[in-house]
Design brief:
By secondary structure, the protein is an alpha/beta fold. It folds into 2 domains: 136 residues, Aspartate/ornithine carbamoyltransferase (Rossmann fold); 153 residues, Aspartate/ornithine carbamoyltransferase (Rossmann fold, 3-Layer(aba) Sandwich), CATH 3.40.50.1370. It is built from 12 helices and 9 strands. The strands form 2 sheets. The protein has a 5-stranded parallel beta sheet. Strands 2-1-3-4 form a 4-stranded parallel beta sheet, sandwiched between helices. Helix 1 crosses helix 12 and helix 3 crosses helix 4. The chain is globular. The relative contact order is 0.16. The mean pLDDT is 96.
Length: 306
C-alpha cells in the first residue's frame, strides 16, 4: 500500500480496502501476534470534538500494538490558540510517528496531511467519517459474508456518515441508497465523486427523499443522530424537520428479513431510531462499536509499520 495518509475512503482502491479488512480480521482473531507491531511508536491524537469511541479505540489500539497514544485537546495545544496548521504539522512530525485528528473543518485534516511527514488519519470531520464507515462495512462483511451486490440503506441527515458510507460502498461492491428529508441532502460534490466510483465498480448510488425506496430489499439499514456535534442550536428545528424519519419496525419491514441494523453511536432512542430496532436481535451496534478498535488498528498498522 503506497498511501501515506488515511483521509478519505475515496482515495483507496477496493483491493486496498480489502487489505485493511484482512489485517483487521487477523488482528481480531490473533491479537498477540501484533503486540509489538508498532513498538516504540507514538500517535498524537488531536481532538477538537469530544469523543468516547474514537479516543478509547485509538488509545487502546496503540497500546495493543505496543505503541503509545497522546491525547491532545485543542484547548491544551497551540493549534487552539491560532498556531498555523503548517507549524503544528511540522513540529509534531519531529516528535511522533503518526497523527490522528478529530476536527470540525475538513481542511484542518487535509492541511495536517499536506504538511506532516508522518501519516495522518482522519478521525472525523464535518465532511467525512471514514474510520466509522470502514468499520460499518467490516462489520457487515463479518455478519453477511460477501458484500458484492448487496444493498445498504442510510436514513437521516446527509452528513459526514452518509458521505463516507457512499465512498465506501463501491469499494466493497455494495449498492447504497441514502434517504434524507428535503434540505438535508448530502454534499453534491461527494455524491458526484461517489457516483463516479460506483460507475467504475458497477454499483449504484441512489439519493432520495423516500424512506421506502431506500430501504426496500436492503441488507443493511443504518442511521445517525439528527443533530451532530456543533449543531446543537439547530436541534429543535431538526426535530421538526425529521418528524417521520425514525427507523422503526415499519421502516425495517421494507428491508430483507435477514437485514441487520447499524448505528455509529451515540444514539438517541425515540428520535432517529426506536428501541424496538436498536435493541432488537437485528441490531449489531455493539459488534460495530468493538470493530472500531480492530479496523483502526489495521489502518495504523498499514500506515505506520516500519
Amino acid at each position: 500500500m503506497n498511501h501515506k495518509d488515511f483521509i478519505e475512503i475515496h482515495d483507496y482502491s477496493a483491493a486496498e480496502v480489502r487489505e485493511i479488512f484482512d489485517v483487521a480480521r487477523d488482528m481480531k482473531a490473533n491479537p498477540a501476534t501484533y503486540h509489538d507491531a508498532l513498538k516504540g511508536q507514538t500517535l498524537a491524537m488531536i481532538f477538537e470534538k469530544s469523543s468516547t469511541r474514537t479516543r478509547v479505540s485509538f488509545e487502546v489500539g496503540m497500546f495493543q500494538l505496543g505503541g503509545h497514544a497522546l491525547f491532545l485537546s485543542s484547548r491544551d495545544i497551540q493549534i487552539g490558540r491560532g498556531e498555523p496548521i503548517y507549524d503544528t504539522a511540522k513540529v509534531l512530525s519531529r516528535f511522533v510517528s503518526g497523527i490522528m485528528a478529530r476536527t470540525f473543518a475538513h481542511k484542518t485534516v487535509t492541511e495536517l496531511a499536506e504538511y506532516s511527514s508522518v501519516p495522518v488519519i482522519n478521525g472525523l470531520t464535518d465532511l467525512s467519517h471514514p474510520c466509522q464507515a470502514m468499520t460499518d462495512y467490516f462489520t457487515a462483511w463479518e455478519h453477511l459474508g460477501d458484500l458484492k451486490g448487496r444493498k445498504i440503506a442510510y436514513i437521516g441527515d446527509g452528513n459526514n456518515m452518509a458521505h463516507s458510507l457512499m465512498f465506501g460502498a463501491s469499494k466493497v461492491g455494495m449498492n447504497i441508497a441514502v434517504a434524507t428529508p428535503g434540505g438535508y441532502a448530502p454534499d453534491p460534490m461527494i455524491v458526484a465523486q461517489a457516483q463516479g466510483d460506483a460507475d467504475n465498480a458497477g454499483t449504484k448510488v441512489i439519493v432520495t427523499n423516500s424512506i421506502e425506496e431506500a430501504v426496500r430489499d436492503a441488507d443493511v439499514v443504518t442511521t445517525d443522530v439528527w443533530a451532530s456535534m456543533g449543531q446543537e442550536a439547530e436541534a429543535a428545528k431538526r426535530q421538526r424537520d425529521f418528524e417521520g424519519w425514525q427507523v422503526n419496525n415499519r421502516v425495517m419491514s421494507f428491508a430483507k428479513k435477514e437485514a441487520i441494523f447499524m448505528h455509529c453511536l451515540p444514539a438517541h432512542r425515540g428520535e432517529e431510531v426506536a428501541s424496538e430496532v436498536i435493541d432488537s436481535e437485528r441490531s449489531v451496534i455493539y459488534d460495530e462499536a468493538e470493530n472500531r478498535l480492530h479496523v483502526q488498528k489495521a489502518i495504523m498498522f498499514v500506515l505506520m509499520k516500519k
